[in-house]
Amino acid sequence: MRNFSSRYMRLPLLLIFAGSLLLGGCGDQRILEQVGLIQTTSYDLLPNGELKIAVAIPRVEAESNQEREVLRTSAPTSKQARIQMSRQTSLQLVSGQLRVTLLGKSFVQAGIGDHLDTQTRDPAISPLMKIAVVNGDAEQLLNQRYSQHPRTDLYIERLLGKESDSHSIPKATLYEFVRDYYDDGIDPVAPMIRRAGENIVIDGIALFKDDRYVGRIPEKDAMIFACLHGGFKQGELGIRLRKKEKSTEAVVLTSLVSSRSIKVTGAGDKMKVAIDMHLNATVSEYIGGDLKLGKPRDLKKLEQKISAYMAAQAELLVKKLQQAGADSIGIGSYVRNHMGYPAWKKTNWGERYPRIEVHCKVKTRINNVGKMK
Amino acid sequence: MEQGQQLTHILQQFDDCADFKHIAYPELNVDLLYFDHMIDAGKLSREVLSPLLSVTENEMASALARLTFTIKSENKEIVVAILSGSAALFHGGQAYIIDMYDPKGRAISQSETETTITGPHEAFSEPANSTLSLIRRRIRSSHLKCIRLQVGEVSKTDVYVLYVADIVNMDYVQELIRRIREIEIDAVHDTNMLVQLVDDKPASIFPQFYTTERPDAIASKLAGGRVVGVMDGSPFAFSAPTSLFEFFISSDDYYQRWSLGTATRILRFIAFIITILFTGIYVSVTTFHYEMIPQKLLLTLSESRSRVPFPPVYEALLMETVIELLREAGARLPTKIGQTIGIVGGIVIGQAAVQAGFTSNILIIVVASSAIASFVMPSFIMSASIRLIRFGLIVLAGIWGNLGITVGIAFLVIHLSHLTSLGSSYLTPVAPHKPGDWMDIFIRAPFKLLGKRPSQAKSPNPVRMKPKE
């Protein structure tokens, strides 16, 4: 019994201790309806060198029919812009629900530089945040009301998510972008969007060299880029196999499974890069050709045609990348693995990359030609 | 005369006891003392009263010889015997004690607090002899031992300690008997009260004895090598040693196919987590961690929160209190009115509170589902304990967010690992780690895998089922 009472003797002390600890936590509450959840941010560069920053916040108050609020300001850095913007709103601005960052063309052309640092350093920002480059003015794209899509920020996010699921644009999240940025054997890429009347459309892929935008791949080549960039499991690809001038032979492949490997051979100036791609696909449409897909021999022919077409396109695309100086598919990292780190350190890869010889080889296999034989 | 003195003394003891009966046959020199509501009236008239009518004083000796009786000479013993339902017959300076005990208790009926769908539906009722008979009918073995103890200076309540010799670990039996003997209290009214007097840690929120009113559950505890206690006047029996996980087990698990039993058991563990954490997580997420809300829920959640005038922690405590009020009111009221309370509470308060902007509708879902989850617990005592823990976690979540919940869970785990039941760890078989028992704790494996008795029983005879060749 004595043991019992001595335990309760300590109780007041414990309560004081607990109370002082509890009261210490009252400062950093972020009650849901009192915070402005930034879902989309846009960055543009103004001619005077300042950043034009805009944020979109959903508004849910029952009395108001405004579904979102867009704040904008210009400031030298994004955190300073945050301070200025919070003067314009009744809500406490927080970035833990940030889903998309839109980078204006003016901003990426000048180089992102340290501005990514803000977003990678802030633990509240998810590494799954999507990055997209706007072909034009990012703030205008975000501020615009699209009559068919009441919430622009959600519209952009879903558009990017859906398209990257079908591999027609690369998956560019903050994590991937920063990883490729800091890795010296590969350059980051990001999807590009632009306004088209009442809609927003995917406008290809933005290529970066280090932190600077150097060019874009048109959306029709996006699928070939996806094959070069890495393997994927589910894709769709339309090809016009134009051999003769007047032929309209075209094939659409679905359930596309692609894998690629990069091999580096030789050393010094004789270094060669071979990219091997394997495609497995189902034919969902075959129009204008004279092949009978039910026959194994004709199927082989089609496979060869597709392989030849893809290889040619891929080589063209790699040439283009080399001209732009953007090592978006990561050839550099294979070269680095081939030559070893000390030798790589001595190589000026940025200068070497445009001159390196790259060959593409494609092997296609058609698993299934559909109901029609 | 000696008989006269003894009789007067005993009659003095029962002075002012209106329910006490004293029948005198002066011509036979016989006095009969008893409490008529404690004895079997038919048996009394058949075996004592009618023979007495037809005999003379000389024939008394032979009439008495036909009765079953014991002779007591000490006044104190005679008083105790009368109080325990015997009739005392005084004749010729001797006191004949005739056992007529027949407590008029409730009939054996279904369990109200631990209903099952399949399996036996009988439940214990208050008289100990009916409880003991239900147990002995299930374990027909002379190895089932039954030790009688008395608790309560005033109430003199009978407490029986039961165990199966050779299966039980006698250390537990001796420890339990020692603890019961040490109780010094005026009266004990229920088993659930008794076990708190013999608890290892009386200050804890968790029950340290498994109490049940199901005879099949008690029989399985006995066969599993645990000690069982039965108290006269309570429809609950208790078993020990017990662990936290035993409170998640229902007899139904064993009567259904093993896969269904396993699924239900996993469901109960999920329900446990929902009960203690769901409201707390709502509070911490809406107060501190808006990052954790899925995008699709964000708008609905902040829309319904935007009308609420209170911070989430007060909102949650308010609704939890309302739910507890409803539950307590429903438990105290007759069943029919209880249903009305459910409707009033569920529909009127729930719906109106949201429409009036008093709480958010997501919170109503959260609070209701954690209340429902708490009723999934087969043991009412445990279910009440974890409902109380939830309040602590809500307050911690409102002050520190997820950190607070983590601190709360850490304290809970520390406390649980500190607990013992009859000296054995409350967290067996997790700590100490006994993987062999897991088959019967976290899942309900097929019977061929449950060949061993639970390790917590420390049985000298651990094999329960002979493996098939």
Describe this protein's structure:
The complex is a heterodimer of chains A (373) and B (469). With 373 residues, chain A is α/β, with parallel strands linked by helices. Chain A has two domains: 32-217, no CATH class; 219-373, 2-Layer Sandwich (GMP Synthetase, Chain A, domain 3), CATH 3.30.300.210. Helices cover 34% and strands 30% of the residues of chain A. Chain A has helices at residues 2-9, 11-23, 78-86, 105-110, 115-121, 138-143, 152-165, 174-182, 222-229, 296-324, 331-339, 341-346, 349-352, and strands spanning 35-37, 40-45, 51-58, 68-75, 92-94, 100-104, 130-134, 189-196, 199-209, 212-217, 237-240, 250-265, 272-287, 357-368. In chain A, the strands form three sheets. Chain A has an eight-stranded mixed sheet. The radius of gyration of chain A is 27 Å and the shape is globular. The model of chain A has no long low-confidence stretch (mean pLDDT 86). Chain B folds into three domains: 2-99, no CATH class; 128-242, no CATH class; 257-424, no CATH class. Chain B is built from 16 helices and twelve strands. Chain B has helices at 2-13, 41-53, 60-65, 75-83, 128-138, 170-182, 191-197, 215-223, 252-255, 258-287, 295-306, 312-332, 335-355, 361-374, 380-400, 402-418, and strands at residues 20-25, 30-35, 70-72, 86-91, 94-99, 144-151, 157-164, 210-212, 227-231, 237-240, 420-421, 424-425. In chain B, strands 1-2-4-5-3 form a five-stranded antiparallel sheet, with helices on one face. A five-stranded antiparallel sheet of chain B has the order 6-7-9-10-8, with helices on both faces. In chain B, strand 6 (144-151) and strand 7 (157-164) form a beta hairpin. In chain B, helix 12 (312-332) packs across helix 14 (361-374). The model of chain B has no long low-confidence stretch (mean pLDDT 89). Chain A binds chain B through residues 4, 7, 22, 25-26, 28-33, 35, 37, 58, 60-62, 94, 96-97, 99, 124, 126, 157, and chain B through 202-203, 285-291, 293, 295, 298-299, 301-303, 305-308, 311-312, 399-400, 404.
